[in-house]
Specification:
Structural class: alpha/beta
Strand order of the largest sheet: 9-8-7-10-11
Order of helices and strands: HEHEEEHEHHEHEHEHEHEHEHH
Number of helices: 12
Bound molecules: phosphoric acid mono(formamide)ester
Helix content: 25-40%
Strand content: 5-15%
């Protein structure tokens, strides 16, 4: 594997899941594979889990790690070609990226949707420039439209907890006070569409995801109906995708908050969320603290998904 930005880069998912189980059983089995190799992690946006889990995964493989927060201590980067750089951005991304590539062997990039242009966001303008200009393998630590390391960890978690071969998995929108990207729900849907699970997406009208991510999922506007018989509830907020509403908040309706009454409507479903989570907006304290909540093991699997991806990239250097 050269680059990792979506589910298709990983190839056969069953094989990737087997590799994840092997690594989870012995995280240090391949501790020489990254010897004298350097990972550079570049963050345009904040992170807790991605930063720590990816760094830990790289260390498990024997890699050196450098972390650059673009907004803290680095030169502000201009990203538009052709602008007269007489403002507050002293460096252009067109020089910065190949320079970064000089100092490392593998690059991880976090660059969220900026909501200035849907075409730019859905064209993955930032991470694609890293792929084009760095001369290094690049993997996504959440880009504008996808968060594949999260989705891979989500899949590992569902496989570990499922009680039937084809569980019913429900991706549910829930309210949030800030504008959030569609990357996590897009990506989760993309990965679920590669499984044979029963997959349902529920959200208020107006929150339809891009059709290429919805895929074969059933879309159900009645959250109660969607929850019936569910084995996994995957909660997430996202802003609107469609037309002029791109990047807008259309609802903060607390009727969509996931509480214990709704969870009781499922088949004793597990509760999942990528974190960070706004308590008593997305879900209530009691759901999050219930035995059915698996948000912590889900976060723990971020180390495993990152390690599989890094190992495969190292094997191809
Ligand atoms: N889930 C996730 O990506 O968490 P961070 O934003 O903290 O990295």
């Amino acid at each position: 594997m050269r680059h990792f930005t979506n589910v298709h880069d990983l190839g056969n998912l069953k094989s990737a899941l087997r590799e994840a189980a092997e690594i989870k059983a012995d995280k240090f089995k391949y501790d020489q594979s990254g010897k004298n190799k350097t990972l550079m992690m570049i963050f345009f946006n904040s992170s807790l889990r991605t930063r720590l889990s990816t760094q830990k995964a790289a260390m498990n493989l024997g890699m050196n790690v450098m972390v650059l927060d673009i907004n803290q201590g680095a030169w502000k980067l201009e990203t538009e070609r052709g602008v007269v750089m007489d403002g507050d951005k002293p460096e252009h991304i067109l020089e910065a990226i190949p320079v970064m590539g000089c100092y490392c062997d593998v690059i991880g990039v976090r660059a969220f949707a900026r909501f200035e242009s849907r075409d730019d966001d859905y064209g993955e303008k930032i991470i694609n420039q890293f792929i084009d200009l760095s001369g290094r393998p690049v993997f996504s630590m959440e880009a504008a439209t996808r968060h594949p390391l999260q989705s891979f960890a989500d899949l590992i978690t569902i496989e570990e907890y499922k009680k039937k071969d084809k569980p019913k998995v429900v991706l549910s929108w829930a309210p949030h006070p800030k504008v959030l990207p569609q990357a996590v729900p897009n990506s989760f849907a993309e990965w679920m569409n590669e499984t044979d699970y029963e997959f349902v997406i529920t959200h208020p009208e107006g929150y339809e995801l891009a059709p290429q991510f919805v895929g074969k999922a059933d879309v159900e506007y009645d959250q109660w109906k969607a929850f019936e018989g569910a084995d996994f509830i995957y909660a997430k907020n996202w802003s609107a995708y469609s037309g002029d509403n791109y990047g807008k908040i259309l609802s903060v309706d607390p009727a969509w908050t996931i509480d214990s009454e709704k969870m009781a409507h499922t088949d004793n479903a597990y509760f999942m969320h990528c974190l960070p989570i706004r308590r008593n907006m997305i879900t209530t304290d009691d759901v999050l603290e219930s035995p059915q909540s698996i948000v912590i093991p889900e976060a723990a699997n971020r180390e495993i998904s990152a390690q599989v991806v890094l190992k495969r990239i190292l094997e191809n250097l």
